[in-house]
Write a structure and sequence with these properties.
Keywords: ATP-binding, Ligase, Manganese, Metal-binding, Nucleotide-binding, Purine biosynthesis
EC number: 6.3.4.13
Largest sheet: 5 strands, parallel
Number of strands: 23
CATH topology of the largest domain: D-amino Acid Aminotransferase, Chain A, domain 1
Number of helices: 14
Domain ATP-grasp: 111-318
CATH class of the largest domain: Alpha Beta
Shape: globular
CATH superfamily of the largest domain: ATP-grasp fold, B domain
CATH architecture of the largest domain: 2-Layer Sandwich
Helix content: 25-40%
Oligomer: single chain
Number of domains: 3
Structural class: alpha+beta
Strand order of the largest sheet: 3-2-1-4-5
Pfam families: GARS_A, GARS_C, GARS_N
GO biological process, one term: 'de novo' IMP biosynthetic process
């Protein structure tokens, strides 16, 4: 089978790497891909120079090359309706429709669905103008709040505020300065939840759900969870804080009701349902939903997956997930450390030559997934904010972390940096076994 993966980040490199290992994958095309997908050795992966947002050319390429399955990685083409266009052309695709992808495309839509579906989440208010939001804040006591731009903002449209003054400044940034562009045409003010954040990704065809092992992402830019939010500075899997009982609770109280409610709204969901959760004293609550594999969560999750990913994604696209083989996992934990360009998540310089990739790849149990990279005149250079996802697997979390940071130390480019505390939240895990949790409903 010929497979097409759409996107150019670390998530897409990881998807290509895992899908190409399937004995049924004759070739995996990546559009547009990056320097990592372009230089994979021993696997049938090939870049295609088509942007992830060029729906017409992607559909034409899939038709002309008889692509058996297209896997859409990033949120933007999903929200724009790429899956709809592929299916309208008689092609199979893994990912939600445009209508279902609004679960990530609009935070207002997401929160209102959670409220109407009686799915646990924080209290919230929505506003169409900065003036309305400012009046709301000035009429209330100063308190910790979270402000969010409604639309897609590459993971950066969330501002955690400790006081009214900080919240008023966030309103100005979102609604006044349009720091996040059109994503800030509407904004939300939410209560600030307290606890540990976890990411639970589930694959669903709208009738069955397979919850994947929980992961923990690191959104703030700097050590100790300080600084502005990013798209994610690292992740590890599994998250020891989530045991089987809690995972089952999340399925029953959050995932299944969400899929049911989407079906009732005539927006049936198929693909990856990614729940960003806060584990509060009252139980898990939804912070937000994404409608695709997380980045960087995808990297350590797929590092541990022993099953054929192509079988699972194809079964999902066909609506027969209940027939897919049970997932098998490497019992060892995995840790991903993101290396970023200087200045990220703000402005940053591009085009610096990256060295040490071969040395890093030679560290045992390590895989370097490329994100913001390109090949120019034979050199690999940085072209994005998040550049590499250095991922390692080990017998324990500390062992995996040590391998990942050993590889990180081998890699250099001007301005390269990373958080130094990825996975410190995790306790040492020895041979953690995560079951394949599958729920059939509807």
């Amino acid at each position: 089978m010929k497979v097409l993966v759409v996107g150019n980040g670390g998530r897409e490199h990881a998807l290509c790497w895992k899908l190409a290992q399937s004995p049924r994958a004759d070739i995996v095309f990546c559009a547009p891909g990056n320097a990592g997908t372009a230089t994979e050795t021993g696997l049938p992966i090939q870049n295609v120079d088509i942007p992830a947002t060029d729906t017409a050319r992607l559909v034409a390429f899939a038709k002309d090359n008889e692509i058996g399955l297209t896997v859409v990685g990033p949120e933007a083409p999903l929200v724009a309706g790429l899956v709809d266009a592929l299916e309208a052309a008689g092609l199979r695709a893994f990912g939600p429709s445009r209508a279902a992808a609004e679960l990530e495309g609009s935070k207002v839509f997401c929160k209102e669905l959670l409220r109407h579906g009686d799915i646990p989440t924080g209290d919230f208010h929505t506003f169409r103008t900065g003036e309305e939001a400012t009046t709301f804040l000035n009429e209330r006591e100063s308190q910790p709040l979270v402000l969010k731009a409604d639309g897609l903002a590459a993971g950066k449209g969330v501002i955690v505020c400790g006081s009214r003054d900080e919240a008023l400044d966030a309103v100005q940034r979102i609604a006044g300065d349009k720091e996040f562009g059109a994503a800030g045409n509407r904004l939300l003010i939410e209560e600030r939840l307290h606890g540990q954040e976890v990411s639970i990704l589930a694959i669903t065809d709208g009738k069955s759900i397979i919850a994947l092992p929980a992961a923990q992402d690191h959104k703030p830019a700097y050590d100790g969870d300080q600084g502005p939010n990013t798209g994610g500075m690292g992740a590890y899997c599994p998250a020891p804080i989530v045991d089987d009982a809690l995972l089952r609770r999340v399925e029953e109280e959050i995932l299944v009701p969400t899929v049911h409610h989407m079906k009732r709204k005539r927006r049936p969901f198929r693909g990856v349902l990614y729940a960003g959760l806060m584990l509060t004293k009252q139980g898990p609550k939804v912070l937000e939903y994404n409608v695709r594999f997380g980045d960087p969560e995808c990297q350590p999750v797929l590092m541990r997956l022993k099953s054929d990913l192509l079988d699972v994604l194809e079964a999902t696209a066909d609506g027969r997930l209940d027939e897919a083989p049970r997932l098998e996992w490497d019992p060892r934990p995995a840790v991903c450390v993101v290396m970023a360009s200087e200045g990220y998540p703000g402005s940053y310089e591009k085009g610096h030559v990256i060295s040490g990739l071969d040395q890093a790849a030679n560290v045992p149990n390590v895989k370097v997934f490329h994100a913001g990279t390109a090949s120019i005149d034979g050199d690999v250079v940085n072209v994005g904010g998040r550049v590499l996802g250095v991922t390692a697997i080990g017998d324990t979390v500390p062992a995996a972390k040590l391998s990942a940071y050993t590889a990180v130390k081998a890699i250099r480019w001007r301005g390269a940096w990373c958080r130094k505390d990825i996975a410190d939240k995790a306790v040492s895990v020895d041979k953690v076994v995560v079951k394949d949790e599958r729920t059939r409903f509807g």
